[in-house]
Amino acid sequence: MSDLALPTSSSSLAHSNQQELKRDARQERFVLFSLCSPALLLVLIIMVLPVGWLFWLSFLGEDGNFTLENYQRMVESKSYARIFRNTFEVSLLTTAICILIGYPLAYFLSQLPRRTANLCMITVLLPFWTSLLVRTYAWLVLLQRRGLVNEWGMDIGLWDEPIKLVHNLTGTLIGMVHIMLPFLILPVYGSMRAIDRDYLKAAANLGASPTQAFWRVFFPLSLPGLFAGSLIVFVLCLGFFVTPAVLGGGKVIMVSMRIATNIELFFNWGAASALGVVLLVLTLAILGVASRVLRFDQILGRGH
Amino acid sequence: MGKDKSFSSRSRAGIAVAAMALAAGGFVSGATAQEKVTIASWGGSYQDAQSKALFQPAEKATGIAVTEETYGGMSDVRLKVKAGAMTWDIVASGSGSAARAGAEGLLEPLDYEVIDVSNFYPTLKMKYCVGGDVFSTVFAWNTETYGENGPQSWADFWDVEKFPGKRAYRGKVAGALEPALMADGVPMDKVYEVLSTEEGIERALNKIRELKPHIAVWWSSGAQHAQLMKDGEVDMTTGWNGRFDVAINDGAKAAYSFNQALLDYDCFAIPKGAPNKDTAMKFLAEISKAEYQANLPKYITYGPTNKLAYEIGKIDKAVAEKLPSHPDNAKLQLPVDIEWYGKFEQKASAMYQDLVTE
Amino acid sequence: MERLSLSGVAFLMYFFGNDQTLVFAGQSCATPFSMGRSCFSDRYERFVLNEMTPAASSTGSPANSQAKTPAGGALPITIRDATKAYGRIFALDNVDLDVRSGEFLTLLGPSGSGKTTLLMVLAGFTRPDYGSIKFGEREIVRTPPHKRDLGMVFQNYALFPHMTVAANVAFPLKLRGVSKPEMDQRVEQALETVQLGGYGERRIDQLSGGQRQRVALARAIVFEPRILLMDEPLSALDKKLREQMQIELRRLHDKLGMTTVYVTHDQREALTMSDRIAVINHGRVMQLGTPNEIYERPANRFVADFIGESTFLPVSVQDGVASFGGQALKVAQLPRGDHELLLMLRPERLHLVTNGEEVRDSAVNAFQAQVREMVYQGDSFLMYTELEDGTEVTVRGMTRRDMVSCLPAIGDAVQLALHSDDTVLVSAEGA
Q1: Domains defined along chain A, listed by start
Q2: Where residue C56 sits, what CATH number does that domain have?
């Protein structure tokens, strides 16, 4: 590059306006950059500072001195490891079920005429307008021992004894999948809509049966949306509180619930913030590994 | 919720916009004669009852202006104390968390020269907190499953052969270990003695392990255990008596017993740095009087902490007999030992969480 | 005129042959008007490609002897009664069409004419309401697209963005279970055929429009289909590239020899590339013929209007003599039937004769006109004139340096001469 640089010091001849033009260009870049400074400031204030503070607090003991006891506690007490495993298990299962239900549904919607699809989309989004708590309690009413599902199931003779649908993992998953489904369907549907129908026609024309065309062309092209949706669902699940608290019957304990307990139980914030820090670190680590393995940045980077 | 007040205090510090503080009506120069207190409680029907039975009548009688707010518990108090911006004068709290907050230095010690507790049950007051109402952690059962004469003791609660059915139990350690020991045959007055060693705690936990396969739900709130009984989701549960009364009045097929129940109380405390500490002390003295305490059961089935309240004839006999702090009921129960919780709760909680997540 | 002379450019007239000159009165270069011989065949032969009618290929004409035909040979396509209605609109209206084996046939029509629908019916993406489509002897109207075994180049290429160039081209081979070494070899061969050898590892988004077009073509021919469909494949390219690709596509067709059905709305493209053109409008085939026939002898006003520029003059016919404005016309051929007839005037077929000159050639029709406007277009110019009855008629001429002084001025009266061979009457139908 150096040989391409305009001669400045080496040449005694100063090019007319060279310095001034350079300064103008610099100024323009600065002005452009300053446009994003409010956003940067906002991120700093609402993201970086609190997370940093959280991190700092997690190393403070009850007496306000530096200590590792908050982390030590997590290693020593078996329940913490179980809770973390539980959290990731529930999040993974929810994500998996959301994919199994949401992907075909999004595919179905994407094949409908736009107007019909938009109508159906409203029904997918409708739950967003109801409070999370209301939806969660609605599931409780439906699924409990003397709830509608069990009563109907026994009335029509599907089963004789009430089956346990709630106050356990099953109920938690049902509730969480219901709440998370739109977060998966929206990006998947979006990416499916963006797939040119001609790709499938081309595949068919080249000899691909509908199944082959789907797996070799449609599915790979819908992956960016699927990754985005799964990621949103998975990360949202990690921090979920209400639904597992209500539908889990105290048997499905997630990190967020333990954070709440620790805030009540311990004098210092450290006990709770250490949990937050570990969850954050584990989440980032998992995403890092996932992005390596799945190489979705590469897939995402591919324009159409 | 608590915004108006915090704005006013900051405006005094010259930080917030004065106009907003004025609009909030909390701008007081300090020279004004009127005394005032700000009380933070849990909100909902519980605070409604407190307001009607205690705060409003006391405000009328003393001329101390009362401002009510709601708050989220001692962690909020901790935040305000640490920020040096306390705006509350009195907070309502559970006894256990008040004890811990007191130990942490978040609360002012109460002046029992000002507050007359001579007629209180002896266990319903402590250095940092004076009892406001009494409730019990009882066992309740479904009357459709077991009839009116259901389980009579914690041993019965544990007896899944005599009383087959699903149980619910508390998901947190508070009030969870004592019943287990009683079910295991520890006499009521020895419970906290036994619990004061790790082996004792382990003994209680093992007893709960025994029952665990039959525990369908680990409940986490009063609303939840009331609902579980109302919906027939479980056949038997532990829980707070007032909630069951509400559920029974609501048509729940449930009954409960005070036998071997845990007698506990909610209390009032003054947070560190309260702006009107002396007024608050006076106000607490007022609402601790029997005539106010006797009002409370009209609005919620939690008992007065002042024994005299039963004697001044303000509480119906029928109502009184249902209250946890009625002498006939109180004698059946084990008063919760706040000191034990101060010493052992964190340790016991960790062990209990291990058990629940096993 | 002032503008033109300021630019210092001379305007010249170009007539039939370079040996023929036509000039104007008062000029030294003036010679009597005379019409040259008819030379359609020279004029309209494609300048790059030899005419390659299927008939010629089947008789083994030299031009086609080296053509490589796909395995099993090219297939003819027979379309009978193909009909597709969308509500009350007929996208295809009882279409009968025969595409000969190895032929390059273009479906030409305006947008909404049904040409793309017809292509989609051939590809199997649109199910006709009724009708029969045969590839060779095989009825395929109910065969799903992936079993039709035909290559297709889409308008937007439809290259799979998640695959490399090589993977795109290998796609049809993979589906056909071709072994890996053979696949690699055929992919590279196909890429070389479209002059993209060595581009296999590129990603699609790294290619230019023209390169994508070639990849699409390579993918469509790599499995040696006997029929190739192309849906306006050049419409996304700029003019220069488009013209270059037209020639390349035509060459490729000559080399591979597969039956090709090509859809376009660009008449010049159709004329350049096709063996035969089917002009389509309102779901019907308006005319089927060689480019020459379509241009020179359009079946009706629609075809005449759509292909090339034309002005139409109303013509009355009495006792087998056609006349315009009372002037009897010398006509090469009088269409049969009793439709209303129009005289088709192509701008490049009209010649200028300044007033005072007499048109002596007996095979020429002359019309009186007045010059209204001149437009310079570099290689040619356009002269807008007005006939006595007020009809505007455009004349196109080639610019030639030695003709600079021979042009009329605006307002001059001129005569427009039309050789009887170019005096074509068309049916007024199908406008």
Answers
A1: 78-301 (1.10.3720.10)
A2: 3.40.50.300
Cα A143 to Cα A167: distance, rounded to the nearest angstrom: 9
Residues spanned by the domain of C417: 301-427
Token pair in block for residue B289: 């009087």
- Closest C-chain CA to A219: C162
In the predicted model, is pLDDT for residue C11 greater than 50?
no
- Are B271 and B76 in contact, with CB atoms under 8 Å apart? no
Q: Is the ipTM of this complex over 0.85?
A: no
What is the model's pLDDT at position C291?
A: 95
For residue B147, the tally of other CB atoms under 10 A from its CB is: 10
Which superfamily does B137-263+338-357 belong to?
Periplasmic binding protein-like II (3.40.190.10)
Chain B partners within 8 Å of A266 (Cβ)? 346
Whether chain B lies against chain C with 3 or more Cβ pairs closer than 8 A is no
Q: What is the distance of C-alpha B28 from the center of its chain? A: 33
Domain B22-134+264-335: state its class.
Answer: alpha beta
Domain boundary among C296, C313, C329: C296
pLDDT value for A295 = 62
Backbone angles phi, psi at C148, to 5 degrees: -85, -20
- Alpha carbon separation from C7 to C4, C14, C102, C378, C403 (Å, rounded): 5, 20, 50, 11, 15
CA angle A182, A186, A192 (to 5 degrees): 140
What residues of chain C, 148 to 207, have a C-beta less than 8 Å from chain A? 148-152, 154-156, 158-162, 171-172, 175-176, 203, 205
3-state secondary structure C354-409: ECCCCECCCCEEEEEEEEEEEEECCCEEEEEEEECCCCEEEEEEECCHHHHHHCCC
- Which residue in chain C has the smallest CA separation from A298? C162
- All residue ranges of chain B with pLDDT < 50 are 1-32
Instruction: Using the 3D structure, point to which of C262, C296, C330 is the last residue of a domain.
Output: C296
pLDDT for the residue numbered A12 = 52
Pairing verdict, β C327-328 and C321-324: antiparallel
Q: Which residues of B touch A77 (CB under 8 A)?
A: 350, 353-354
Give the chain B residue whose CA is nearest to the CA of A264: B75
Give the number of A-B residue pairs with CB atoms closer than 8 Å.
Answer: 65
Q: What is the 3-state secondary structure (H, E, C) of chain B?
A: CCHHHHHHHHHHCCCCCHHHHHHHCCCCCCCCCCCEEEEEECCHHHHHHHHHHHHHHHHHHHCCEEEEEECCCHHHHHHHHHHCCCCCCEEEEEHHHHHHHHHHCCEECCCCCCCCCCCECCCCEECCEEEEEEEEEEEEEEHHHHCCCCCCCHHHHHCCCCCCCCEEEECCCCCCHHHHHHHCCCCHHHHHHHHCCHHHHHHHHHHHHHHHHHEEEEECCHHHHHHHHHCCCCCEEEEEHHHHHHHHHCCCCEEEEEEEEEEEEEEEEEECCCCCHHHHHHHHHHHCCHHHHCCHHHCCCCECCECHHHHCCCCCHHHHCCCCCCHHHHCCCEECCHHHHHHHHHHHHHHHHHHHHC
Tell me: pLDDT of C18 over 80: no
pLDDT tens, residue order, chain A (304 aa): 444 445 455 455 568 888 889 999 999 999 988 898 899 999 889 889 989 988 998 998 877 788 898 899 888 888 899 999 999 999 999 999 999 999 999 999 999 999 999 999 888 888 788 888 899 989 999 999 889 999 999 999 999 888 899 999 999 999 999 999 999 999 999 999 999 999 999 999 999 999 999 999 999 999 989 998 999 999 999 999 999 998 999 999 999 999 988 887 887 788 899 999 999 999 999 888 887 777 655 554 444 4
